[in-house]
Amino acid sequence: MMMLNFVTENRIEPSNILSCDTVKGRSILLIGSDPQQSDSFQQQLCRHGYQVQQKQSDDSIGESIVRNQPKIVILDIGFSGLSKLYLITSIRAVFTGPLVLLTCCVSEQEQVMAFNLGVDEYLINPISINIFDVRVAALFKRFIKSQSIDQQDQIQLGDLTLFPFSFKCQVDGQSIALTQFEFKLLYLLASNEGKIMSRDFIYKALLSREYNGIERTVDVRVSQLRDKLTRQGVQKTQIETVWGQGYMLSLLS
Predict the structure, then answer these.
(1) What is the pTM of this model?
(2) From CA 84, how far away is CA 2, in angstroms rounded?
(3) Which of 26, 121, 183, 202 supports an S-S bond with 100, CB 3.0-4.6 Å?
(4) Residue 233: CB atoms within 10 Å
(5) Alpha carbon separation from 42 to 96, 125, 132, 237 (Å, rounded)
(6) Is residue 6 a part of any domain in this protein?
(7) Is residue 3 part of a domain?
(8) Are residue 103 and residue 44 in the same domain, yes or no?
(9) What CATH number did the domain enclosing 217 receive?
(10) Structural element, H or E, at residue 238
(11) Could you report the average pLDDT of every consecutive run of 10 residues in the chain (253 residues)?
């Protein structure tokens, strides 16, 4: 596999609009499949002011993201191409921040699939450190703007706070990792606090299909969501099962 190699060039200071200072010093989680290549990349990023944690691409990626709480995740797939794109789904299950894909392949099919799966930026290696700085700074600037919108549209219900734009959930100010489906389910219930949401309505709203009276997909997801909220210590809200009708989120007195 090709060693990652930033192209060296004279340093050009970006404009204030895309200031790299908005990103420098913030934590990056670098996920790679080649330890030697990842070490080289990490060293170069650290020399340019980034704080980098490194993780190899295995089944514990989600745990590492939850534990490290990075501001940006970089997935380096090298020459692996389409065979490694499934990792994007695993990352997006627990991470709603900026996600950068770094690849050695120039493939339109790979780019389309990567963006459809949830990548925010697609960078082809080798890449100039100047270009990397500006692209990542621009990405982070967009993310900060979206967070500002998120703050305006947030839902506060008991000890739960939901941020719909970033799919972020907090319990008493502490973040809890939810999949996008779990977040959408919780947001739907919270937006209709005190109202019964029928299974048919939930299926149509979140899965774009009618409930057939047999399928248990939503029931299983509700159970998993309840377990996560309970483990996180939620005490002021609860998801109730209204037998024969559906589910309802209510405040506890």
Answers:
(1) 0.53
(2) 16
(3) 121
(4) 11
(5) 22, 14, 13, 43
(6) no
(7) no
(8) yes
(9) 1.10.10.10
(10) strand 237-242
(11) 42 35 65 73 75 74 80 82 79 82 83 85 82 79 64 80 82 84 90 92 88 88 92 91 93 82
